[in-house]
Amino acid sequence: MTVTIKDVAKKAGVSPSTVSRVLSGHPRISLETSRKVKVIMEEMGYTPNMMAKSLVSKTTNSICIILPKPAEELFSNLFFMELIRGIVTQSSRSGYDVLISSGANEKEELEAVSRLLKGRRVDGVILLYSRKDDAVIDFLESGGYPFVLVGRSDRYEDILSVDNDNIMAAYDATNHLISMGHERIGFVSGPPNLIVSRDRLEGYRKAMQNKGLEMKAEWIVEGEFLQDSGYRAMSFFMNLPNRPTALVAVDDMVSFGVLRGLNELKYKVPEDLAIVSFNNIPLSELSSPPISSIDIGIYHLGYTASQVLIQSIQKPDNHDGYTNRFVIPHRLIVRESSMYTPGKQ
Amino acid sequence: MTVTIKDVAKKAGVSPSTVSRVLSGHPRISLETSRKVKVIMEEMGYTPNMMAKSLVSKTTNSICIILPKPAEELFSNLFFMELIRGIVTQSSRSGYDVLISSGANEKEELEAVSRLLKGRRVDGVILLYSRKDDAVIDFLESGGYPFVLVGRSDRYEDILSVDNDNIMAAYDATNHLISMGHERIGFVSGPPNLIVSRDRLEGYRKAMQNKGLEMKAEWIVEGEFLQDSGYRAMSFFMNLPNRPTALVAVDDMVSFGVLRGLNELKYKVPEDLAIVSFNNIPLSELSSPPISSIDIGIYHLGYTASQVLIQSIQKPDNHDGYTNRFVIPHRLIVRESSMYTPGKQ
DNA sequence: CTGTGTAAAGCAAACGGTTCCATAAGGAGG
DNA sequence: CCTCCTTATGGAACCGTTTGCTTTACACAG
């Protein structure tokens, strides 16, 4: 059978309480006893039963990641994988285990979260999305459970969240194109209900306005975070009478679609159309030409989210009400897709 | 406070045991009582405490995924994300939670596994690799813990594993190139201690021998499952006096590296070098040109692994000793990177 | 009317820890 | 020499479930 704290106690000739105290490094245990007990634990191959521990301590030392349902779509996976990698690495450094969960729909998601949290299987939750209205967030808030959002929430001001400054990031991306000499710049956005889409669009607008550049309505196209959206946007743009010489795309996948389309039509990048996009996924540097991209530090995003969550689990009172939004820095990686000044031969 | 089984019992005017039995659908509970209790549970928002349940039932309804130690790098490979997706989907269908874990080195991995299993935090483990000698496997076997290997183990015959027929897969890949008219075919392998590397190499050899084609030693290069390996292999191959006209790469990531290198040197794919690789990760069709790849059903691999593990947890005795190796079918996806017959103009 | 069988529910002992409170043994101070 | 304090340890209740064993309450046969 498995060896329990009582077995160790008996063999060491002490009481279970003493063994427990040795385990937790209680100060009032003599060095001698402590050493003796530790030797015996080692000898007997004792490992504490986490369930029993959790039962009394009401703490599990584990957290849970909720994947959004469109994570099922293969494309976004590279992004999520990086995020998870950051979370798992940091969690395990803090001695926490990570549980991953996802539901087929929002109702299932809510059920899972509720079961895990109310059933005391995890101490907190990381949400890998920022939807506009969300039953899961409502549940977490009203239940007072520790959780953090990767992404920004506009509805709830006091929620812990880890995010980029996407407005600034888009501003930087656009500005880069402007500084290369572009004046007619298009924008391919994502779904309008995602906050990230809107933030990036806003950054683009700001940059254009700032330089007093014209923004035709037709230069802004909505799509998904998918290749196809880029493909369609491209063919739309290229048929415009006074078409853009450059574009900002909300996601690298979109750029790939644009690239594919331009390639089919024998257009050249960046000569016929310069491109900058977001996320800097590993493939961005592998396309031809390599794509300029805003690196948003995905791994770092996950790492920080875990850190913030665990901190909030351990000292729930430490929340000062100010620093509840953590912003991960971004940086522009300039590659071939944007290295061209229009009009130049 | 959280509502317990006792609270429900009191409010319903029954004993805790009765509530427990209602919960588990015990036969000797009157329909009337059952209904009454269920209403009250609903009213009070009762959720069973998993820790308490686990403590007595010695079962956690969760499993654990162990990521290989170079997870930091390999993680970036979409392969693992797909695998995890399959595992999580199937597990949640079976009512199991999934914990993901990894260590900085083999010792840490072993510690984590031991802590989780002996500490009764998980019921079983899925190993996402198949190394040659492995302390973790030794531990799992000697402890009699339920586990399954994604990949093949040559050392332990009776281990549950889910795998592809990698020998056949490589045979097919190579044969495809041969049937396109190639005769000088190179092979970029992975780390030699991974069984998958060796199996694929063997399949390549078989195909070459079968057609009586020459296999120069210098046409076989060892590397990692990373882009860089492809990059290096490429530059090595292209400098060979009588260089290969095609190559088989052990992983799609390797192909990306090859592609990048060839692109830099202004070589054309597939005209100057045709490529086929393995895994068919979602990005394979997005590169330019799209890469021919052996689809090994990664998602399916994960899905099956979870199924097999959970089955073995639930009926440990059901193991017949025969069907302990599950083989997931593969299929060749031909794309542009291999659609060229050498010598043709 | 008593004995027996059966369905429904209760009691209490686990499961493996933690922790408050009590206790015993010294040592210091008066 | 007695009291009081400190330090090291033991005892026991408790965390929220499950489950084997009783008990209760009838119904029915003898």
TrEMBL record, chains A, B:
<keyword id="KW-0804">Transcription</keyword>
<keyword id="KW-0238">DNA-binding</keyword>
<dbReference type="InterPro" id="IPR000843">
    <property type="entry name" value="HTH_LacI"/>
</dbReference>
<feature type="domain" description="HTH lacI-type">
    <location>
        <begin position="2"/>
        <end position="72"/>
    </location>
</feature>
<dbReference type="Pfam" id="PF13377">
    <property type="entry name" value="Peripla_BP_3"/>
</dbReference>
<protein>
    <submittedName>
        <fullName>LacI family DNA-binding transcriptional regulator</fullName>
    </submittedName>
</protein>
<dbReference type="Pfam" id="PF00356">
    <property type="entry name" value="LacI"/>
</dbReference>
<dbReference type="InterPro" id="IPR010982">
    <property type="entry name" value="Lambda_DNA-bd_dom_sf"/>
</dbReference>
<dbReference type="InterPro" id="IPR028082">
    <property type="entry name" value="Peripla_BP_I"/>
</dbReference>
<keyword id="KW-0805">Transcription regulation</keyword>
<dbReference type="InterPro" id="IPR046335">
    <property type="entry name" value="LacI/GalR-like_sensor"/>
</dbReference>
<dbReference type="GO" id="GO:0003677">
    <property type="term" value="F:DNA binding"/>
</dbReference>
